[in-house]
Amino acid sequence: VSREETLRKSFQPERCEAFAGAYTAVRTVSGFKFKKNREAEKQLPDIIDNPVQQIYREDAPAEDFKEKYCRKQTIGIVFSGGPAPGGHNVIAGLFDAARAANPETVIYGFILGPDGVIEGEAVEITPEMVNNYRNTGGFSMIKTGRTKIDTQEKMALSKTTCAKYGLNALVIVGGDDSNTNAAFLAQAMLEDGVQVIGVPKTIDGDIQVRDDEGRVLCAMSFGFHSAARGFARQISNLCTDCSSDVKYWHVCKVMGRVASHLALEVALQTHANITLIGEDLADYVDQRRLDAAEKAGTIDYTAYGMTLRHLSRVICDAIVRRAAVGKNYGVIVIPEGVLEFINEIQVFIIKLNTIIGEYNYTHDTDFHTDFLLLEDKLDYLRRLARRSREEADFSVWNTRDDDLFNDIPPFFQEGLLMERDSHGNFPFSQVETERVIMELVTDYLERLIEQGEYKIGIKNVYYVQTMQKAGMDPDYYGPFLFRNWGQDYLLFHVSMISLKTLTSELTRQGAILDNEKVPGPIEKLFKKSIPKFKTQYHFYGYDGRGNDPTTFDCTYTYNLGMTVFSLIANGATGQMAAIKNLEKGFAKWVPLGIPIAPLMHLEERKGRLELVLEKSLVDVRAPAFQAVKALRAAWLCARSEDDHFRKPAPISLEATTEEDRPLTLTLNAFADE
Ligand code: FBP
């Protein structure tokens, strides 16, 4: 057992002030406003008007309050969706708080996610189990799964399970879709007296809650910090690698589904040379096109947002600029969901979702089952795409890309049709987004090589000339001697350095003396080959979900668990446990209950509009993104100086407070103050 493992078992996270006493109570916090969706009002009538609740320490409870608070309870807990570091501490916090209130309270853990609830598979959580998993990553204690409780039948089975175990409360630890589940279960189980509480989990960082006026209630879901720190650490190692053997562009796809929060945090942590932020690409406006259209008295819709080809040009431009100073290496960070923000792909995905959805409603078998049996899959896809194109009217979006589907590589054509999960989410992690983009980049770089704009693969040429011959003043030009090292035409003035020294230095760098084509006043000519454009692909995703939690996530989740117990003990349902002021120091953290129903909106899933918890995307106006935008030219470092990479520390409970919370939170907090 490693030292870190031992430390994790005994580490006791700090408790918020609200949990310092024996009892907690809740008070309604007024002033927060939410625009409620009509459909949510209709489908969730009994929890839509829930208030925001603050948990506080109750030091003088009345006798009947004490009695209720300390009654024996039977609580079920389930992990739902992808693992996120800190989940075990939610259980630990809930367990410690519940057992402190009444040592006879029983907590059941449902096995393998919502399937465990539907099928009634659970284990009683014991002190030994909790102690074994304190402060550790993953969801291995009770496992997880992605099933959606979306039919009357599954709902009825879930109710039967709650009755079978005699539950008075059910806790759902999950992302946006799982908290959507929690809201529907809370509404349906009201009549059975089962309280349902959600917990905001996901490494993607896309559960952030603000009210309509932008006041932050929950700045970040748990697991984000640990995953981002893990990714950043490994990507920063690639920064070191590429600047050592100077031959690769490391292309790093980073998890996060649609939102680019993880990529943004990684950019701030590592200063990688190029980081794409999907939300930024969607925000792009081509001013020249707009101006031209205005002159012509028309409107050009293609001026808004970025196309796939345009994106590949942006990356090429950055690569060429580094190559111009001899840097044929670097690190590119690509969020896994970036293609959602590309005009034509987004329209495409929605249309295909509709076609798949329609197919499933009108056929006996499911689309993907039939698709797998097809002999000529590609032909079928093309026909689908034609139909999709006609319906989507691609010509409005981008006339040049109207044949997009035939343009994209076959593996991506099939990738677009991969099976959606039970919530209707597109499986971004399974699609090699980075290869789609980099194939276009490589094609375009080849064109630039032909045009002589990208100097890769051709010879670097060094001319050696005496200053006197060039008629230059050595005192003035001397300091510029090696300044432009790495550029393809470099003038060396041998009066400032001995020809022997210069020859051996150029030879050491791989240059070959070529005196046959010496032009005009040049005395010697050297040539040097630059290696080809080479890439290495990496995916940072599943590893981050299994990371051990940072001190921030250990503390956050332990307090979330205690918050869950306070909400249950105080009679709440349809609420999500949260901690306010995560972006500030621990002393300012305040445990809350946030109503889930008002956070829901209608979203396209499987070709239909469904009521789901609204995901939070990167706000391109917020300071975290603005900082990256302001610094990206410096991080691209298309100059001859060294790169400005940053080395984040590895995750360890022994580490001091450096980066004790996500940098994005720290930066965005400036805007909220
Ligand atoms: P959650 O939304 O359930 O937390 O999942 C997060 C995530 O890790 C995404 O970043 C990723 O796109 C997805 O899960 C991968 O899903 P799967 O585990 O089904 O491959």
TrEMBL record:
Protein task: Catalyzes the phosphorylation of D-fructose 6-phosphate, the first committing step of glycolysis. Uses inorganic phosphate (PPi) as phosphoryl donor instead of ATP like common ATP-dependent phosphofructokinases (ATP-PFKs), which renders the reaction reversible, and can thus function both in glycolysis and gluconeogenesis. Consistently, PPi-PFK can replace the enzymes of both the forward (ATP-PFK) and reverse (fructose-bisphosphatase (FBPase)) reactions.
**Cytoplasm among keywords:** yes
Instruction: State its cofactor.
Output: Mg(2+)
Q: Which GO terms describe its biological process?
A: fructose 6-phosphate metabolic process; response to glucose
SUPFAM superfamilies, A to Z: Phosphofructokinase (SSF53784)
Q: Does the keyword Kinase apply?
A: yes
- Superkingdom classification of source: Bacteria
What the entry lists under Gene3D superfamilies is as follows:
3.40.50.450
Under Pfam families, the record lists:
PFK
Q: Write out the catalysed reaction.
A: beta-D-fructose 6-phosphate + diphosphate = beta-D-fructose 1,6-bisphosphate + phosphate + H(+)
Q: Which residues belong to any copy of the Phosphofructokinase domain?
A: 75-283
What PANTHER family does the annotation carry? PYROPHOSPHATE--FRUCTOSE 6-PHOSPHATE 1-PHOSPHOTRANSFERASE, PYROPHOSPHATE--FRUCTOSE 6-PHOSPHATE 1-PHOSPHOTRANSFERASE SUBUNIT BETA 2
A GO cellular component annotated for this chain's UniProt record is: cytosol
Keywords recorded for this protein, A-Z: Cytoplasm, Glycolysis, Kinase, Magnesium, Metal-binding, Transferase
Any one Gene Ontology MF annotation carried by this entry is: 6-phosphofructokinase activity
- Quote the protein name from its UniProt record: Phosphofructokinase
Q: Which family does it belong to?
A: Belongs to the phosphofructokinase type A (PFKA) family.
